[in-house]
Amino acid sequence: MVYNFNLGIGWASSGVEYAQAYRAKLLRRIGQEARFVFTDMFPRDNIQHMTENIGFLDHEVIWLYTFFTDCKISPVTFTLGQLEGTFGNRKFSGERDGARVKYTFPGTNAYCMVYLVNEREQRVHSVEMVSNGCLVRKDYYTYCRIYSEYYAPLDGKAHLYHRRFFNEDGTVAYEEITDQDKVMYQFKDKLLCSKEELVGYLVSRLGLTKKDVVLVDRTTGTGQAILKNAGPAKVGIVIHADHFSQSGTDEEAVLWNNYYEYAFSQWKHIKFYVASTDVQNRLLKQQFKKYMGISPKIVTIPVGSLEELKVPDTARRRHSLITASRLASEKHVDWIIDAVVAAREKVSDISLDIYGKGGEEEKLKAQIGRLHCEDYVRLCGQQNLQEVYQKYEAYVSGSTSEGFGLTLMEAVGSGLPIIGFDVRYGNPNFIDDAENGYLIPVHDKMEKQERVQKLAACIVRLFTEADLESFHAHSYEKAQGYLTQEVEEKWKNILK
Prior knowledge:
There is one protein chain. By secondary structure, the chain is α/β, with parallel strands linked by helices. It is built from 15 helices and 25 strands. The protein has helices at 15-29, 47-54, 64-67, 80-85, 195-205, 223-229, 258-265, 278-292, 333-343, 361-371, 406-413, 426-430, 448-464, 468-479, 484-495, and strands at 2-6, 34-38, 61-63, 93-97, 100-104, 110-116, 124-131, 134-141, 145-154, 157-166, 172-179, 182-186, 191-192, 213-216, 234-238, 244-245, 255-256, 272-275, 298-300, 320-324, 351-355, 377-379, 394-396, 418-421, 437-440. The strands form four sheets. The protein has a ten-stranded antiparallel β-sheet. The longest helix has 17 residues, at 448-464.
């Protein structure tokens, strides 16, 4: 069995979660059984809805908080009718407003606020119990009640002090006691005094053997617990981002990324490290040797793969650009918008479609409105892009750091030239300058306006000077090394 450890997942997931989803698909194809362990709490959503959305199968998912119960990972199926059945003989009335239903109980100072999966259905995600104007309890459901939260008023706010996790039959499996920053977990036969201990208890309960492999995608708050309890299993660390700080590194010392510092310090207990590009692999080996005098095993395995190369069955839309990412500040989608607006002065029919969701969406909407570019710059939301990339002529990236760049891989797999900054590690991995796109040299002191100008200049250059047919062909050539069969073999070799 291969156990893959991560923290959280969301509707607008990061590259780490997408990398795991790719890996899940690859492991299925080679017949390798795998589980994906998530250790974050998800009170706003049912974890199953998010894992299914990205491509995991229910039986592949382990959630820390239900692991110690007999409740299965499941979509929400608990209904309003079932909830009303729990009211017993009490009289009640219900009023629905979209995805919320408020139940009141005549003669009492109590009510329930029900939060449904969506405004069209009757499926219940959570229920808040309010008494005398104070929140006292929240219940969370899938096909049964999986846990409850208990609250008390403190400083005018509802203060969470207790969680209770249930088995399918409603019996209590274990309890969580919280007091500000402190947390304890009470089981019938033991008391755990931190979340890290809870993670360690989960790992110990897996019954790992020398045949098992543990892949850790995020070590923050879990790394020590995993290593302490992994026993004879082989432990591998997957590196998803830049592993060190350039500005904090000199000839005498290296400043490791906080996410990887612990994993690097424990190299004696790590069977292998996985880098997603050869460039990062070589650099990490050099740094281990130079600063630590060690040579641990480091392998290169792309975090994703391509089932096939995507060739358009109709002509690509003339002078069309695509970018796809989380709409986060570090992706600098705002730079791309500014660059496209500037490039339109030279190439009048350039268009840009932006795919993805994230915290910067409203800012980007406002920027598009302010620049009056709605006719040719569009926010297209989160979509499956498998059959989308090949409709465009080129891909553009504003990111200043990519561990790999799944969307870059998907772009070259559809023959797209790429314009992006010459920064570690994704862009140089997929762009051969002036052969299938343009790598833009940058330095730390380069101002935003200069970066925008250079992006705009490369966009204009691409559409006025480049041999696009040749650029498309070169991207397809680059993509050959990322076909699924190639990546499958790499995983087979490391998991043996």
